[in-house]
Amino acid sequence: MKLKMVETRNVLAIKELMQNIQNRSEQVPGLGLVYGCTGYGKTRAAVWYAVHNSSIYVRAKEIWTPAWMLRDISYELGVYAYSSTERCFLQLQKTIAERKKLIIIDQADYIEKKNKLLNTIMDLYDYTAVPFVLVGTEELAHRLARHNQFWRRTSQVAMMQPLGKEEVTQVAEELCGLEVQDGATQGILQVTNGSIGEYVVLLEEMEKGARQKGQAIIDKSIVELAAKRLMRRGA
User: Sign of the CA dihedral 160, 161, 164, 168?
Assistant: First the structure.
């Protein structure tokens, strides 16, 4: 299996959101949100975008405090993180304003639960006008909408979708050079529940099965065998 990012609908949606929020006019708010079910590829796509587009990626933690969050963002920007929360904030504000790098914060459900974290992000955005994008679960959009001040600063929202039939074929072809028969596609979607994360794991097993049979096609029998192997592994 090749190590590459397949540009599925979700990857393209994240890419479009990031580009739109960076290229927005001055009158348009600069906070963004990417949300969806676990396994839909949010984190991998966000990291991929950050690495290839000179952006900052930070993963939130359940036990974050505002000071800890500021230090983590500082580390990712490569600037000294002062022990004083005030000095750390002012240094970070200055650096963000100067470098103008998009900041992506993953696992943002942890942030929504703590008003001080959410308000600190708003403060950094208000003082710098540099965009922040939060990434979280399918419930995050609904919960953030209850924070009026934050929500009215949010101009870009992308909801991640489950894998479609065409994407099942696309991923198998781009990662493994394998063709998926029409009859096998539905079985793959049932096994993975539309999760790209689960599909990649299944695909690795299906690739082994196809190579062992000396064929470049994934058929129903390959799907069933791979699914059974994974079930035994998890037992």
Answer: positive
